Amino acid sequence: MLFSILIPVYNVERFLKECVESILRQTEEDFEIILVNDGSTDKSGEICNFYAEKYPEKIRVIHQENKGLLIARRTAFQYARGQFCICCDSDDGLKPDALRILKEEIDRSNPDVIIYNMDLQFGKEFTPFSSSIFTNEKRVELKNKSELYKKFLTTFFVNSMACKAIKTSIVDVKRDYTKYVDITNGEDSLQSISIYKNAKSIVYINESLYNYRANESSMTQKFNEGYFSSFLKINHLLEESIKDQNFENKDEYISFHLMIVAYLSITQLKFPSCKLSFIEKKQFVLKIRNNAYFDKKINIYSHMKKDIKKMFNQKQRMILCLLSKRKISAIVVILEVWKKVGVLFKR
Questions:
Q1: 205 and 297: one domain?
Q2: What is the residue range of 68's domain?
Q3: Where are the alpha helices (H) located in 173-291, listed in sequence order?
Q4: Are both 260 and 314 inside the same structural domain?
Q5: Is 294 in contact with 302 (CB distance < 8 Å)?
Q6: Would you give the DSSP letter of residue 213?
Q7: If pLDDT is split at 50, 70 and 90, which confidence band does 347 have?
């Protein structure tokens, strides 16, 4: 079997059928679908059973108590029988020719990982999320991982588990991920780190093969107090993982990644869902600023080369400059102003 499509499922009765049907409609038919029902409390489990009974030769379903997305995905990997695994979130879907295009690349070069583009789906409309990440050509073999790690550290285009086909033999199936269950954000980055480290050959296809649904819940700005701490752990793991990778300005790129995480974490304070008081917001920002690991990285940021620093936008540079100078109250005031006047800007 060539492909195992891995789908963690939790309370997605509204979109699950569309997701599964997008795979069943593939023009390449050498695949299996593994549905891991992670303790859903809606009708998702029933939908999983329906498809498993209707397509017993194609679909298997595993029911487990709720353990979270990370462990649900690891469960799916353990059951995979295909030569390549493709991760698909249960409210997303694949383009009709996705598996055929991937098979053509496998027949051509048989790489360990194939990275591809994604589209954002808003209802019936689609807009590119990523394109021409590494080249303007149709494909490129990434012979040097340094460019991959630079993209990983400065964008979100290659971090998702859904943007790549992975040779099953390089997946660390037996690794214990239960120690990471407290990570509330960034589980895709966490798993991608080891995949890229294990891969000996990586190809990028400059074509969109995946539809990422921007549904109501994902568009809602929800305050997550654990956002920074989750990515802080991931930053530690990433730095350890690439310590043997030698590329120019590596420390600055690692710092860049953590600065973006800090900015995204802090700017949550302007979300309507954030109910912290002014003093509590100051304490929230100060806790980030006083973190010893973060302090080292922001010192690197302060002396960062211009060609890297210019990748931050104006608002990011402003907040990070104030953070560097420990102007905590000023940061909170600015975010209060943005919240009250309803300024719309790209985070």
A1: no
A2: 3-218
A3: 187-198, 216-219, 227-241, 250-266, 278-289
A4: yes
A5: no
A6: E
A7: very low
